[in-house]
Amino acid sequence: MDLTMIKSLYRQTADFVDREITLGGWIRTMRVSKNFGFIELNDGSFFKNVQIVFEAEKLANYDEVTKPVSYTHLTLPTTPSV
After folding, report:
1. pTM
2. Are the C-beta atoms of 27 and 41 separated by less than 8 Å?
3. Residue ranges of E strands in 1-82
4. Coil/strand/helix, residue 20
C-alpha cells in the first residue's frame, strides 16, 4: 500500500483529480452526523490538513468509523476533488 503524502496533494493537485489514493496520518478532528461526516487528517508533511468527507450510504462500515475511539489505522477509499 503506497501512501500519498498530504503535501503532494497541495503541491501537485492536478495529478490526483479523479484518482483513488491512500492517506495515512492522525485525525485532528472528526465531526459526524446521521448521514455524513468530516475528518481533518494530518500526516506531518504539510502545515495544512486535508478534509475527508464520508457518507453513510457509500461507506459500508460507517457506524464503526464514527465511533468515538482512537484509531491506529483507518482506511477509507478516497478520490480527491478540487
Report:
1. 0.75
2. yes
3. 26-32, 36-42, 50-55
4. coil
Residue 77 placed within a domain: no
Looking at residue 65, its amino acid is: V
Structural domain harbouring 53: 6-65
| CB-based contacts of 65-72 (< 8 A; 24+ apart in sequence) | 65/37, 66/30, 66/32, 66/37, 71/27
Report whether pLDDT(24) > 70: yes
**pLDDT tens string 30-47:** 999 999 999 999 999 999
Residue carrying the nine cell digits 462500515: 61
Q: Helix H segments across the chain?
A: 6-11, 62-65
How many angstroms separate the CA atoms of 11 and 74, rounded?
24
How many domains, the chain? 1
Specify if 14 maps to a domain: yes
